[in-house]
Amino acid sequence: MQIYWTKINKIIEETPEVKTYLLDCPEGFTWEEGSHTHFALEGFNVGDKPNRNLIRHMSISTVPQEKSIGITTRIKEQCSEFKATLSNLAVGEKVAIFKTHSNIPLKRQNKNVYLLSSGVGLATFRPLVLAYLANAQYVTQLHSLNIDSSQNYLFLDLFMTNKEKKFTVQFVDQRQTYYEEVSKLAADTQGHFYIVGSDDFLKQTIEVLRTLGISPQQIMIDKHEQSRDILLPTTPTT
């Protein structure tokens, strides 16, 4: 396993609780849209065993063309040791990234693509939107639906409806409204549905889609195969 040590080159305050940490790209480090990585703080690998309190599984919110690795995360006043330590880091300090992989690259199969997210989960979809806007080939249209009860919606400079590019955007702040909109989108029985959020959010959204006839093969979640099989079994469970 290769560990890439790099430096924070910029910290962006997206909202009062959400920050994006932009990291220098280490030589030889590559990724694609929809990628996640293990993001670790100094001291995580001191001793016989890794300190898992200093490691988090994070989505990369940038594309390689931006020449920085973006990590976007919510940091509340009451937070974990990891986020408390992260919040005190400054530009120029070191962090580590390793085990980078994409479970949800943008599918280009001449279908409509729907991005369903909760809160800061929108950061996972930012690279997919950028990839689509740069090259819409074999994607019929793209639609984003995000729910955030704080109403501090992220990336409003990017997540705005662009009819010319066939990219539409919805933000809602209530669960009932969100599920009503998901049900409407599920009328497209051939579409691809990407979901990012908490496990409860995934389970509930999957249940709505499956009830309305969307197959597991049409649903993409940012999980390894074993976790995916639990949340999204291809055969009915008894």
TrEMBL record:
This is Dihydropteridine reductase. It comes from the Bacteria.
